[in-house]
Amino acid sequence: TWSYFTSDGATAKPNSGTLTTPPIAIPIATAGAPKQNAILVFSAYLDVEAESSRDILIVKVHSQKTGLADVVWRKNGLDPSTGIAIPEWEVEMKGWQTFTVSLDDYLGDTINVIFDFNTITAENNTGEGVYLDNVGILGGCTPATPAPPGPLPVP
Fold this sequence. Notes:
Elements: E1 16-20, E2 24-26, E3 38-47, E4 56-63, E5 69-74, E6 97-102, E7 109-118, E8 129-139
Antiparallel strand pairs: 1-7, 2-7, 3-6, 3-8, 4-5, 4-7
C-alpha cells in the first residue's frame, strides 16, 4: 500500500506528485502458445477541477527496453496516441471509477507504471485531490498445462 499527500486542501498554491511502481515484468507468450494480453487496471477517486487543462492526471508506462515513458491514459478521456475520446476513460468527479488500459505494446518488456498529477495553477486547489487504489496488471500469463488424466506419480 502506498500513500502520497501534498497539500492541506486549503493552501492556494500549485502542487504536484508522482507515484512510480517498482519494475514489473510483462511476459510474452512462448512460440506456439496462445496470444497473451496485458491490462493495467486501477481505481481512482478525483476531487479536482474537471477542466482538461488543469489538475492534470496522466498515467505513463516507462519501458526498460526503449528507455521512454509513454502516456497511456489521461484524465480528460482522450486516447493519448489518437486524441479520440474514449467514453470509458471519462472521469466522474467525487466518485470511484475503475479504468483499464491495454499494455499489449509492452509484452516481453519490464515496465514502471507512473501516475503523475499536477494542479498547474494555484486556483481552486481546495478539493481532496486524487486517490488511487486497486492498481494491478491482469493477464500476461500463459495458462498452465493440465496434468494428464490418471494417478499422480508417487515421489
